[in-house]
Write a structure and sequence with these properties.
about 400 residues, six-stranded antiparallel β-sheet, six-stranded mixed β-sheet, about 35% strand, alpha+beta
Length: about 400
């Protein structure tokens, strides 16, 4: 066959087809910044939920692990010995200062009071007689009917009788105090705990505490701060001319919910713990509902009272790879863009501060993140108008 009549070669040999197929598969597996395998004109727009990056107030600060401590914690104890006649409170209730709590049987102590009153009356009668004897002796000595020594003796007897009155009064007072101790009242306002003794139990000064009262409002939170961080914070505050009033303390519970009442720092320790190189810092907080309990572990956040403006987005919009953190944004042409960001503090309600990489008004994808990649067309909707997608 002549060369002119030879069949034309096929456009692609088998080896070339394999190469092209491998390239196509490689493009299809590109990451978020490498583009998709399908031409942009043929890609279908994916619905995504977006939010706009917005400026919002941020209170810059730092969080520490703290423990709640009661301002006052009192053990109720018996000061006289006797059997408990009545328990006058409900365990766990709020009691006011002076509220009756226990009553110890009174009969024995009332009898002692009566005896001491009788002793006082007898001492007063003896003192009256001694004064009268002294007066007669002084009259007789002037007439020369008795010796001066007799007057001296009766003077001493009168003074002894006066001293006996003082002793009787002191004994009566002690008996009245002991009788008053049979009524045990709350020394402070607070919540009373479980009663360790009940009606019929014998108690006394050597017994364990009858109950415990813990003050509720206000309440403390104490947290350790490293010596270096405390010194740094003091320098920063001094540079701004800020005092303790420039900061506030917020509490977050272990379930990440925030306590609604902020507090203030009222004490900084005067020595450094040698084992941990930390200084205890104490803040006082209102506790009107009793949600903060003595001994409770919490997260204490010390933050600036004056807010600063910063870009805030949902934390779920942040992704990370080997190059760092990024978000997927929607361009004006409704295509996905990768924005490298530098994040700041993590805030409450699942929000995070963005220090750089975004501008107010940027549209950030927060729903449907796993269905898109860089350069892909999307159909943006407000995040509330589309089902949450991973």
């Amino acid at each position: 066959m002549s060369r002119q009549n030879a069949a034309p070669p096929e456009p692609c040999s088998g080896g070339l087809r394999a190469v092209l197929l491998s390239v196509a598969l490689a493009l299809a597996g590109c990451g978020p910044e490498e583009g998709g395998g399908m031409p942009a004109a043929q890609q279908q727009a994916v619905p995504v939920g977006v939010i706009e990056a917005q400026l919002g107030p941020v209170h810059l600060g730092e969080s520490f692990v703290g423990r709640i401590e009661a301002v006052q914690k009192v053990e109720v104890r018996a000061r006289v010995t006797g059997f408990i006649e009545a328990r006058l409170f409900e365990e766990g209730q709020i009691v006011e200062a002076g509220t009756p709590l226990f009553r110890i049987e009174k009969d024995t102590y009332e009898a002692v009071v009566q005896q001491r009153r009788a002793d006082l009356a007898a001492a007063e009668a003896a003192a009256t007689n001694a004064r009268a004897q002294l007066g007669r002796a002084e009259t007789l000595v002037e007439r020369g009917n008795v010796a001066r020594a007799t007057v001296d003796e009766r003077q001493a007897a009168a003074e002894t009788a006066e001293a006996s009155i003082l002793q009787a009064k002191a004994a009566l007072r002690q008996a009245e105090i002991n009788l008053a101790y049979t009524d045990i009242a709350a020394p402070i306002r607070g919540r009373i705990g479980r009663a360790a003794y009940d009606v019929g139990d014998l108690v006394g000064p050597d017994s364990n505490a009858l109950a415990e009262i813990i003050s509720q409002d206000p309440i403390y939170v104490v947290f350790p701060v490293s010596q270096g961080r405390l010194a740094e914070a003091e320098r920063e505050a001094a540079a701004r001319g800020a005092g303790q009033d420039a900061f506030r303390v917020r509490i977050r519970f272990q379930d990440a919910t925030e306590y609604p009442h902020p507090g203030r720092v009222d004490f900084v320790g005067i020595s450094v713990d040698r084992g941990t190189d930390t200084v205890p810092v104490r803040a006082v907080l209102p506790n009107p509902d009793g949600r903060l309990r003595d001994g409770q572990f919490v997260q204490a956040r010390v933050e600036q009272a004056e807010a600063q403006q910063a870009i805030i987005i949902p934390q779920r919009a942040i992704q990370a790879d080997q190059q760092g953190s990024f978000v997927l944004a929607v361009s004006p042409e409704n295509r996905v863009e990768v924005r490298r960001v530098q994040t700041g503090e993590t805030l409450d309600r699942g929000r995070i501060m963005v220090a750089s990489g975004l501008q107010p008004g940027d549209r950030i994808i927060v729903e449907g993140l796993q269905r898109v990649r860089s350069g892909a067309p999307v159909e943006p909707h407000p995040a509330e108008a589309i089902g949450a997608g991973g």
